[in-house]
Write a structure and sequence with these properties.
Blueprint: E1 7-11, H1 15-27, E2 31-35, H2 38-47, E3 52-56, H3 68-79, E4 84-89, H4 94-104, E5 108-111, H5 117-129, H6 140-150, E6 163-167, H7 171-183, E7 187-191, H8 194-203, E8 208-211, H9 232-242, E9 246-251, H10 256-266, E10 270-273, H11 279-300, H12 304-314, H13 319-326, H14 330-344, H15 349-357
Parallel strand pairs: 1-2, 1-3, 3-4, 4-5, 6-7, 6-8, 8-9, 9-10
Length: 359
């Protein structure tokens, strides 16, 4: 029995981009179908299944407010749920694109002005080696809400993704980090200088920052030179720490003493060396940092007395011993623990203790 070749759908109104994307997909062993509009894409999706679709956000060259690409993503979810989608977008629509990922289930998005063939090829191979992704058809109410949002009409409010700030003066590294953080569900802001980063910190609230130490473009990241404490990255770490933002340093500096100093003086969450950078390891670091920050946020919601009770609980004390230590009744201890469990979203004493251990 002959195996049917895997197919890819390119939804793009620009002929040059059609050629670029089709050439790479063909090199990856895919049969490529081309669509230049929402209607053509819908017909293509109905005609036969596709393993992946590459979709431009705007499908009208004369209308910068055209978001037909979102409707194509919606059509993919309804008509070909095993198809994974990659969204292409221009710089001015990054925020909308990030939001679209959470609403429409795109695998990732790429900005055209920083497009790299090797990066795109890597994403395609990741999709091809992964199991087909079955996405549940969206309900009529969700479809109506997302359609209204695209048209600029109010929709039901949805939780906004956490924001992450990338400060890196190398475009290639910015692209890699942006892709990984976007895949992790963050709404990403990228910049290349100390000034731009400070501006973002003043304007927006971030849950995570990923920072390179050398931001002046004059230091070879592969040279093992002594770190200059006046580098912009060091000054930026101080500013970020003042904002209480979890920080991951991704740098070419690899001296153990210097790394230890950065941990102790700037209270960073993790230090990742570029020389040994691994995508899977970086994803784990991001997730661990996110979980730690979530625990810290929950602990900050406790009252001073609740925190005292929790700390004593973590030391292994019984309710009676906690009551004696704090000069309160055991019933009061129980009430505090009930409130602590609710705020930490746990149900057992060991789970509450684990929150303190992960602080």
């Amino acid at each position: 029995m002959t195996t049917q070749p895997l197919r890819a759908l390119v939804v793009e109104d620009d002929h040059s981009w059609q050629q670029i994307i089709s050439e790479i997909l063909s090199d990856c062993g895919l049969e490529v179908d081309i669509a230049g509009s929402l209607d053509e894409a819908t017909l293509g999706l109905k005609a036969q299944p596709h393993r992946l679709a590459v979709v431009d956000l705007s499908l009208s060259p004369n209308d910068h407010n055209n978001y037909d690409g979102l409707r194509v993503l919606d059509a993919v979810r309804r008509l070909d749920p095993n198809c994974r989608t990659i969204l292409l977008t221009g710089f001015a629509t990054v925020e909308l694109a990030v939001t679209a990922l959470t609403d429409y289930g795109a695998f990732t998005f790429l900005r055209k002005e920083s497009f790299h063939r090797s990066q795109f090829r890597d994403i395609v191979y990741r999709i091809l080696v992964s199991a087909p992704h079955q996405t549940a058809p969206i309900s009529a109410s969700v479809a109506t809400a997302t359609s209204s949002a695209v048209k600029g009409q109010p929709a039901h409010p949805k939780p906004r993704p956490e924001k992450a700030l990338i400060v890196e003066d190398d475009a290639g590294w910015r692209s890699i980090l942006e892709e990984l953080l976007t895949d992790a569900g963050f709404q990403v802001r990228t910049c290349a200088s100390f000034g731009d980063a400070i501006g973002y910190l003043h304007r927006e609230k971030f849950a995570l920052a990923v920072v390179d130490l050398s931001l002046k473009g004059s230091v070879n990241i592969w040279e093992k030179e002594a770190a200059d404490p006046d580098m912009d990255g060091y000054q930026l770490l101080t500013a970020i720490r003042a904002e209480g933002i979890a920080t991951i340093v991704v740098s070419g500096l690899s001296e153990p003493d210097e790394i230890q100093r950065i941990y102790s003086e700037h209270s960073i969450s993790a230090y990742v060396e570029k020389q040994s950078f691994d995508r899977a390891a970086f994803r784990r670091v991001v997730e661990e940092t996110r979980l730690t920050q979530q625990s810290l946020s929950e602990l900050n919601a406790l009252t001073d007395r609740e925190r005292e009770v929790l700390d004593l609980l973590a030391q292994g004390l019984t309710n009676k011993e906690i009551a004696e230590k704090l000069f309160i009744t055991t019933n009061t201890v129980k009430r505090h623990l009930k409130s602590v469990f609710e705020k930490l979203n746990v149900h057992t004493r060991s789970a509450a203790t684990a929150k303190v251990a992960g602080e």
